[in-house]
Amino acid sequence: MENVDLKVNLSGLYLKNPTMLASGILGYSAQTLESIVEGGAAAVVTKSVGLKARKGYANPTVVQTSCGLINAVGLPNPGIEEFTRDIREAKAVLKVPLIVSVYGFSAEEYAIVAEKAVEAGADAVELNVSCPHVKETGAEIGQKPEVLAEVVRKVKSAVEKPVFVKLSPNVTDIGEIAEEAVKAGADAITAINTVKAMTIDIETTKPVLSNRKGGLSGPAIKPIAVRCVYEIYERMVKAPIIGCGGITSWQDAVEFMLAGATTIQIGTAIATKGPNVFKAVTRGLKAYLKRKGFRSVTEIVGLAHKS
């Protein structure tokens, strides 16, 4: 049988395979992004950046659990003015699409940050409307369809590039929220961000994280993320879905795609498996498609809904 086609068109971005770096992991310097691309990622998403610099929370900000990581780093970032230098540097060396993750405390802020990111060379922006541990941004916006729709509309009117919306699983009906985001103009939906979680030290009797609560990522959230992707696809939302949450192997990637994801993002697995996890996932995915007799990776997207 002839070669399997792994290429994907994600809202006008052309990816040589369906794997992407998730926001929040190694997403600042051109150097680290380059190492991720060398590891096989077909696109990269930066860490979230806002209008002004933020220090983030005091340590401890990340704790390992038996099934993943809980983090509450508090969106530390240098602010968009400073970060535009990093975007330009990254664009000069990367040969894959660069997506900048942005957050804000109002629709106007999101739009300003997105506009500056695109001016600096971002190929797309991903709106972080789902960070579970920072008040008045993130999840609070992503849980209110009308507020989210206003953010998407403002950003869409400010930039000419694709706008992705990263949704929170901490909602009653993620399908409805995705639908509202797409109606407002979102070009793709990223599902999902971390799940609200915490851990307590039984010796000191205190919560481990300085912020007490944080966001759980890694294998523990994969079944939740797969369900979310399935529900969004089931809604017949007219935009591609980017699956994210606990992907560590090609089997996980296939599961997300069968649920309805066009591409997948990998984050926490880089901490345990290193940047070559992208190559491993792509290799396994290709072998699976060949074995099943598929000619293109796009043929398996949403297949679980037809069975």
Walk me through the structure.
It is a single chain. The chain is α/β, with parallel strands linked by helices and 307 residues long. The chain has one domain (8-56, 75-196, 221-305): Alpha-Beta Barrel (TIM Barrel). The protein has ten helices and 16 strands. The strands form four sheets. The chain has an eight-stranded parallel barrel with strand order 3-4-7-8-9-10-15-16, surrounded by eight helices. α3 links the parallel β7 and β8. The longest helix is centred in the last third of the chain and has 16 residues, at 277-292. The radius of gyration is 18 Å and the shape is globular. It starts with 7 loop residues before the first strand and ends in a 15-residue tail after the last helix. The relative contact order is 0.17. The mean pLDDT is 93.
Q: Which descriptors apply to this entry?
A:
alpha/beta, 307 residues, 35% helix, 8-stranded parallel β-barrel, TIM Barrel
CATH uppermost class: Alpha Beta
Estimate the helix proportion, in percent.
Answer: 25-40%
Q: What's the total number of strands?
A: 16
Unreliable residue stretches? none
**Rg from alpha-carbon coordinates:** 18 Å
The CATH topology = TIM Barrel
- Going by helix content, strand content and strand pairing, the class is alpha/beta
- Strand fraction band? 15-25%
Main sheet, how many strands, which sense, barrel? Answer: 8 strands, parallel, barrel
Number of domains: 1
* Overall mean confidence score, pLDDT: 93
Summed up, the helix count is 10
Strand order in space, largest sheet: 3-4-7-8-9-10-15-16
SSE succession: EEEHEEEHEHEHHEHEEEEEHEHEHH
Distance between the termini: 25 Å
So, the CATH homologous superfamily?
Aldolase class I
Oligomer: single chain
Dominant shape: globular
CATH 2nd-level architecture: Alpha-Beta Barrel
